[in-house]
Each structure stands twice: as C-alpha cells, then as structure tokens.
UniProtKB/TrEMBL annotation:
SUPFAM superfamilies reported for this sequence: Activator of Hsp90 ATPase, Aha1 (SSF103111)
Organism: Davidia involucrata (Dove tree)
GO molecular function: ATPase activator activity; protein-folding chaperone binding
Protein name: Activator of Hsp90 ATPase AHSA1-like N-terminal domain-containing protein
GO BP field: protein folding
SMART domains per record: Aha1_N
PANTHER family: HEAT SHOCK PROTEIN 90 HSP90 CO-CHAPERONE AHA-1 (PTHR13009), LD43819P (PTHR13009:SF22)
InterPro entries in the record: Aha1, AHSA1-like_N
Gene3D superfamilies to which the protein is assigned, alphabetical: Activator of Hsp90 ATPase Aha1, N-terminal domain (3.15.10.20)
Domain Activator of Hsp90 ATPase AHSA1-like N-terminal: 60-196
Domain of life: Eukaryota
Length: 196
C-alpha cells in the first residue's frame, strides 16, 4: 500500500506540487513601490465607529453627558398645559439618572439607554372661589430604548394642607396629562440618539 501512495505522488498528473512555469501560465507578478497617487486613489470601505476599528468589531461609546443634557432640554421645552380647572408647567428636571450608549457590532450601529426621571411641576388651579398655586413632582420610574409605548408616570403633590382630598385627586389626574407630551419628547430624544 505504501508503494501505491509514493507512485501517485511522483506522477506528473499530480500537478499541485509541480513548481515549473509552463508556457500557458500567467506571468508572475512584479512588485512595485506604491506612489502617493496610488495611496490617495485607494478607497477605504465605510466603517462605523473609530478609525482603529476598521473591522467593525465591538465598540461602545458612552454618551451620558449629551443624553442627560438633551433629555432635560427637551422636557423643559414641553411648556405649560391647560386643564379644565387650571394650568401647569414643568419647572425643572430635578432627577435625571441613567446611561446612554452607542454600540458598533459587526459594523452595525445600535443604541441603548436606561433612565429614571423626576420632573418638578408647578401651576395654578381654581379651587372653590380662589386660585391656588400647586407644586408637585412627576416621577418616571424607569424607561429604556424601545420601551416608550409602556411609559408610566407617578404624580406626587407637595404637602398642600388647605386642599381637600378630592381637589388633590383632580389635580393629580390633570398632571397625568403630561404623559403624552413627555412621551413625544422622549421619542424625539430616541430618534436623535439613533441619528448620532
């Protein structure tokens, strides 16, 4: 059996090992030095992420500062809402805690974020015969990328001792109407994050 293998290796029909150039073979390449023009004409495939990551492997970029500032800016721009018995506005974003990031994986961009917010609101409501100034907070316990359809808010009124329970309930119900404008602004934030 060993002799059969060696016969096959030595035969001329087994051309893989043949290193002689034949007449019909293509000429061997001749090395030449690249010029600056050759280098400038060389096109690089478009890659996402950093210059060092041409292969498009995993790369994560933290965008917390931009995201927190942008969320605050968008939510303050909601303005005031009019209700049947009063009006209110978002005075400030008192808590904006979370993470936002851009990830490049296999040369595809993905985004993600998780945040918790507290919005300080103030307004005036007609209670009985007089207008009363009311302050409170709207808490958004947690929201993340792709989660905004299920966004929930919790309303907490400041301790208003001269308000009846039914007035507090009415004012709290009115403040839940901030849900839609807040959701719209957060959807805008999500789109801007995707476009970065």
């Amino acid at each position: 059996m060993e002799s059969a293998v060696s016969e096959k290796e030595g035969s001329a029909s087994y051309t893989y090992w043949v290193r002689e150039v034949t007449q019909d073979a293509a000429p061997l390449p001749v090395p030449r030095k690249l010029t600056s023009e050759d280098l400038s004409n060389q096109s690089q495939p478009a890659t996402l992420g950093s210059v060092w990551n041409r292969a498009g492997t995993w790369e994560e970029k933290n965008v917390n500062k931009w995201a927190s500032d942008r969320i605050k800016e968008l939510l303050i721009s909601v303005g005031s809402l009019e209700f049947s018995g009063g009006r209110a506005e978002i005075a400030e974003v008192s808590k904006c805690v979370g993470d936002a990031f851009l990830v490049t994986v296999r040369n595809k961009k993905r985004v993600g974020y998780t945040y918790e917010l507290t919005l300080r609101v103030k307004g005036e409501w007609q209670v009985g015969e007089e207008k009363k100034k009311v302050k409170g907070d709207i808490d958004i316990p947690e929201f993340s990328f792709g989660d905004l359809d299920d966004l929930q808010i919790e309303v907490r009124l400041s301790e208003e001792k001269d308000l009846l329970h039914q007035d507090k309930l009415r004012i709290s119900k009115d403040l839940t109407l901030f849900l839609e404008p807040v959701r719209e602004k957060l959807l805008q934030f999500e789109q801007e994050l995707k476009d970065r």
